[in-house]
Amino acid sequence: MRSQINSALVLVFLALAVPACAASLDEKIPDQQSINALELRANQAQPREQCFLYAELVHEMIEYSARQYAAGESEQATGLLKRAQELIHKIHLTLSQDNKRLKNAQILLRHTAFRLTELLHSSDSEDRPLVQETLSEVNQAQNEAMLSVFRK
Fold it and tell me: Which DSSP state fits 126?
């Protein structure tokens, strides 16, 4: 009886913790200064930490880009998407190294892909190819990160 109560409490805790964790990814509102600071930090970080920092940077850039699209600033948003694609390439390069927080990077990339999917559905027709291309690259990086996690 006692083990059933403990199991039920654990299930309730997990059910409440997962949405709180997912919501915390979007609580921080990125701005250009925080993106610049994070990019500087990622470029200067040790190779083991760069994968996660680049994933975090791409995530913030996509969040900020989505806000810019919503505000009607499509040129700035497009520029951020193109810059994010360059950083996704850096994620590919850092995946082969011994990474710290690789699972966290994979989770961030999955959430970033989700946000890009939302952006794809709400974007104008002339912006869709760039958003689709960025989504494809994020999905590929996320898949590679997931495979790297399982190889460990």
Answer: T
- Give the number of other CB atoms < 10 A from CB of residue 89: 12
Q: Tell me the pTM.
A: 0.78
Q: How far is CA 148 from the centre of its chain?
A: 17
Q: Helix (H, G, I), strand (E, B), or coil: what is residue 1?
A: coil
User: Would you call 116 helix, strand, or coil by DSSP?
Assistant: helix
Residue-range domain boundaries for the chain:
30-151
Alpha carbons 28 and 14: distance in angstroms, whole number: 23
Integer Cα distance of 20 and 17 in angstroms:
5
Question: For 45-71, what is each residue's pLDDT tens digit?
Answer: 988 889 999 999 999 999 999 999 989
- Distances in Å between the alpha carbon of 88 and those of 4, 120, 131, 152? 45, 18, 14, 22
